[in-house]
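Structure (tokenized):
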């Protein structure tokens, strides 16, 4: 059997792994909590700064040790669809303390620290939960250019970002004297990004709080409605095609089960185009009939393209 697969034959998770970063006061935590049914892992006490309307129905863990996080991931999390981490920098402090105690991490420690980060993200994915990580903004100098990046320790940056589907930079833009918040997941010369879900280059984040009264004016559902639901719709299309692929492969396997000699083998080959092939199903059918022919002691005559009984000496 070939190990080469088309995109709809692959195992594709339906959860999203993402990070959003930007300056303080941008509403990053509120935006992160717009993911569906979130559980907030509050590493830096930021929950108290979020409008009550956006946290009153949110499960929250006020983290004191990394062991508490490990414990939470063993609990029944069926009430939650998303895990929100606030913030990445503070989470790393807890992990470093967990690995190194109260001493400064040494070069030999970073392998264990990065592995702990990766295992954390993978554990959440294995539970089929979305993960949304909040980070502050830092600046990396590239010659004379300032590039905005998440505020994460350099030795962990690549290990964490490699695990994510999306990395989005939040900022404010002024259009017609109106200040609007936006997020981009595309990497640009001025910000890091990652956009494996094909999202628009720039997405405007709607205001959902009246700045004068502090009252909410719309539901907090941006990530759910604008990111996760479109991603899941794309995955459903792939799954539908995968289902069709499995159906035709089942029909092919059943037909090959009926092959018992060179006549039925050649009959199958003659009818191979009658199946409603999708993707690599025709190629897989060729592999399967060839294996069945071998098991029956048949060989393919390259001149006639027909199976024959192998000559015995």
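Design, position by position:
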């Amino acid at each position: 059997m070939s190990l080469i697969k088309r995109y709809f034959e692959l195992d594709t998770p339906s959860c999203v792994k993402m990070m959003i970063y930007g300056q303080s006061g941008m509403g990053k935590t509120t935006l992160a909590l717009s993911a569906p049914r979130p559980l907030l892992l509050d590493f830096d006490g930021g929950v108290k700064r979020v409008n009550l309307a956006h946290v009153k129905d949110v499960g929250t863990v006020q983290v004191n040790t990394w062991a508490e996080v490990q414990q939470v991931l063993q609990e029944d999390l069926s009430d939650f669809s998303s895990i929100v981490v606030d913030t990445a920098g503070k989470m790393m402090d807890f992990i470093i303390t967990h690995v190194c105690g109260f001493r400064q991490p040494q070069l030999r420690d970073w392998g264990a620290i990065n592995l702990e980060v990766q295992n954390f993200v993978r554990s959440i994915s294995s539970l089929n939960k979305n993960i949304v990580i909040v980070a502050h903004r830092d600046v990396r100098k590239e010659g004379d250019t300032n590039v905005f990046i998440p505020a994460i320790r350099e030795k962990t940056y690549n290990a964490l970002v490699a695990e994510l589907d999306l990395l989005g930079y939040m900022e404010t833009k002024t259009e017609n004297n109106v200040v609007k918040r936006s997020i981009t997941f595309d990497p640009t010369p001025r910000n890091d990004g990652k956009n494996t879900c094909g999202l628009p280059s720039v997405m405007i984040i709607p205001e959902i709080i009246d700045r004068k009264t502090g009252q909410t004016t719309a539901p907090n559902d941006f990530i759910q409605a604008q990111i996760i639901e479109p991603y899941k719709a794309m995955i459903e299309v792939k799954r539908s095609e995968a289902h069709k692929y499995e159906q035709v492969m089942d029909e092919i396997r059943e037909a090959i089960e009926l092959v018992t000699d060179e006549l039925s083998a050649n009959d199958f080959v003659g009818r191979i185009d009658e199946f409603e092939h999708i993707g690599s199903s025709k190629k897989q059918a060729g592999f399967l009939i060839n294996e069945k022919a071998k098991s029956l002691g048949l060989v393919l005559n390259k001149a006639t393209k027909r199976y024959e009984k192998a000559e015995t000496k």
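Reviewer-requested clarification: The chain has two domains: 7-220, 235-309. The helical segments are 28-32, 66-72, 88-100, 110-126, 154-161, 222-257, 262-270, 281-295.
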